[in-house]
């Protein structure tokens, strides 16, 4: 029987949560409403100050419609502060700080996604629910399309690095001011672009954080955006001979990928444990004597599949960005392979790289990729060959990548690990002291939520309990209340989760080991 290859979610253990006492709430509410952060932050204007009770919702009526959120549920009593902070004469950030009454003494900064300008309100809520004084920003602009990058270096610099760093400097200062004590430890959590922001912070501002959770990091950012832009030129539009429908990706191609690769790990369970071992041969699907029309691929379509699963190369043959990993096609069919230009790449190239708003994404070539790499808007690339200063201060990085990521190939996180380890001259055992990378079979792009990671990085930083392996939980119908479908051990790179074989049930945690 085939398993659903949906996302794996994690149980959310709580760090610390004690109930508030009625009289304390009043005092806290008063303290909140008397807070005047703008007096302590240069060039800032206060836009929000409110006390929010557990069980309430924060209304976000000003939030850009493309951010798709007009309110956020809150599960802890907290004080919400928002500032507008100018960062240059033509740029400013929207800064949100949520201060829980039951403060654990810790500080947490959150990141963003895509090329967006959307505050990660759900992570602010997660942070305050677990006792962190938590900050987030709009990364220097509102909405998701990036048009304000156009001829505005201030906004591009905010997006590249300045917004997050500013929020940390301001956030630590205001934490001390509000609670009367400095934060004991400083953490960061983000995925995708947010993962990149975490790695970049470790490189540029090694003192900003003690612990960083960097999920599916969008490192080597310019080349990632070129890789994404290229999909439209591979698939063509929906009427092109090279185009493949979502249905064909999800049935014909996905089944053949599983047929060729699911059993490599010893367990035919619908999940490719290690996609690096899957050398998919799409030629077996070529229409011919054996194949029914509708269940086979034309020559042009076979070429599309071959390109999708091949490394992306510069014209001189060296690597631009690694191949998409097989196994992600169920989700990628409706995304990168959908026969439309990829919105965030279009915005990045039009407004930040080429500064050419009428640019036609169908014309994309490696020449554009070259411009992106040379220009490196806002210094965004993020490809450090050392994080020695961060490590030297005792900093820890916990990174993970879903092995069915349909937005950023997980092969790039392996490539980055090897690049960093090589640059620092570290063997994996040495890397383990400060940088641990977990591959999560069966998980799509940023599909896990912050829970397990935040707990693991806090334990590592504060108790020296470094995560060895993480147990992921797949809930029935991806619904926690519906109960556990199965659990799986996720191994620390370079180890991989290996089926012990025999009559064991691949859905049992004990049937696998990290080797
Ligand atoms: C972003 O939106 C906020 C309202 O949510 C507004 O105050 C701010 O000026 C906007 N920023 C930019 C750069 O347009
Ligand atoms: C901040 O305000 C000062 C004046 O108070 C001004 O000189 C400076 O340019 C401003 N900085 C930014 C980043 O806007
Ligand atoms: C904004 O600052 C830049 C340099 O930081 C300067 O060249 C420009 O004249 C300033 N623009 C305005 C409107 O003050
Ligand atoms: C190939 O071209 C890319 C892009 O111009 C360049 O970065 C790379 O160094 C080149 N590789 C070799 C081996 O010359
Ligand atoms: C899971 O969802 C399906 C369809 O949404 C439903 O038919 C089924 O009963 C659900 N299973 C459980 C255990 O909730």
Protein model, in words:
The chain is of the alpha/beta class. The model is unreliable at 1-21 (pLDDT under 50). The protein has helices at residues 22-34, 121-129, 153-179, 193-204, 221-235, 246-261, 299-308, 329-332, 343-353, 366-375, 388-392, 411-424, 428-431, 451-463; strands at 44-52, 57-59, 71-73, 78-88, 91-100, 106-110, 133-137, 185-191, 211-215, 312-313, 319-321, 396-402, 435-440, 469-475, 484-491, 497-499, 512-514. Helix 2 (121-129) links the parallel strand 6 and strand 7 (133-137). It has 4 domains: 20-183, no CATH class; 191-219 and 382-464, 3-Layer(aba) Sandwich (Rossmann fold), CATH 3.40.50; 223-378, no CATH class; 468-515, no CATH class. Helix 5 (221-235) packs across helix 9 and helix 5 (221-235) packs antiparallel against helix 10 (366-375). It is 32% helix and 19% strand. The strands form 5 sheets. A 9-stranded mixed β-sheet has the order 1-4-5-7-6-8-9-12-13, with helices on both faces. The chain has a two-stranded antiparallel ribbon with strand order 2-3. The chain has 14 helices and 17 strands. One 2-acetamido-2-deoxy-beta-D-glucopyranose binds next to strand 5. Its EC number is 3.1.1.-.
């Amino acid at each position: 029987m085939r398993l659903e290859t949906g996302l794996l979610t994690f149980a959310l253990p709580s760090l610390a949560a004690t109930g508030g006492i009625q009289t304390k709430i009043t005092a806290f509410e008063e303290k909140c409403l008397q807070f005047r952060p703008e007096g302590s932050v240069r060039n800032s204007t206060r836009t929000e100050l409110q006390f929010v009770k557990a069980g309430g919702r924060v209304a976000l009526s000003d939030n850009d419609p493309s951010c798709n959120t007009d309110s956020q549920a809150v599960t802890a009593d907290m004080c919400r502060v928002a500032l507008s902070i100018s960062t240059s004469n033509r740029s400013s950030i929207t800064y949100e700080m949520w201060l829980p009454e039951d403060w654990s003494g810790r500080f947490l900064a959150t990141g963003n996604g895509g090329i967006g300008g959307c505050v990660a309100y759900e992570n602010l809520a997660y942070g305050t629910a677990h006792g962190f004084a938590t900050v987030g920003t709009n990364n220097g602009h509102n909405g998701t399309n990036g048009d304000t990058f156009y001829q505005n270096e201030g906004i591009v610099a905010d997006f590249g690095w300045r917004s997050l760093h500013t929020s940390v400097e301001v956030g630590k200062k205001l934490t001390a001011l509000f609670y009367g004590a400095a934060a004991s430890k400083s953490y960061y959590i983000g995925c995708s672009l947010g993962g990149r922001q975490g790695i970049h912070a470790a490189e540029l501002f090694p003192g900003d954080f003690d612990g960083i959770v960097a999920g599916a990091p969008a490192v080597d950012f310019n080349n990632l955006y070129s890789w994404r832009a290229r999909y439209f030129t591979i698939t063509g539009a929906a009427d092109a001979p090279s185009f493949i429908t979502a249905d064909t990706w999800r049935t014909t191609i996905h089944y053949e990928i599983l047929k060729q690769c699911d059993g490599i790990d010893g367990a035919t369970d619908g999940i490719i444990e290690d996609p690096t071992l899957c050398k998919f041969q799409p030629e077996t699907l070529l229409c011919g004597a054996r194949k029914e029309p509708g269940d086979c691929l034309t020559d042009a379509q076979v070429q599309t599949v071959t390109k999708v699963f091949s490394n992306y190369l510069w014209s001189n043959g060296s690597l631009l960005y690694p191949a998409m990993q097989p196994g992600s096609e169920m989700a990628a069919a409706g995304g990168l392979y959908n026969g439309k230009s990829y919105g965030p790449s279009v915005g990045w190239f039009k407004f930040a790289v080429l500064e050419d708003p009428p640019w036609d994404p169908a014309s994309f070539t490696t020449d554009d990729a070259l411009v992106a790499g040379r220009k490196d808007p806002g210094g965004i690339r993020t490809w450090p060959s050392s994080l020695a200063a961060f490590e030297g201060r005792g900093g820890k990085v916990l990174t993970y990548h879903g092995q069915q990521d349909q937005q950023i190939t997980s092969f790039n996180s392996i490539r980055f690990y090897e690049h960093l380890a090589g640059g620092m001259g570290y063997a994996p055992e040495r890397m383990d002291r400060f940088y641990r990378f977990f591959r999560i079979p069966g998980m799509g792009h940023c599909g896990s939520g912050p829970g397990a990671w935040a707990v693991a990085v806090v334990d590592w930083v504060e108790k020296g309990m470094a995560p060895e392996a993480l147990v992921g939980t797949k809930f029935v119908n991806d619904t926690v209340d519906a109960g556990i479908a199965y659990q799986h051990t996720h191994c620390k790179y370079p180890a991989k989760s290996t089926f012990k074989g025999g009559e064991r049930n691949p859905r049992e945690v004990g049937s696998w080991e990290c080797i």
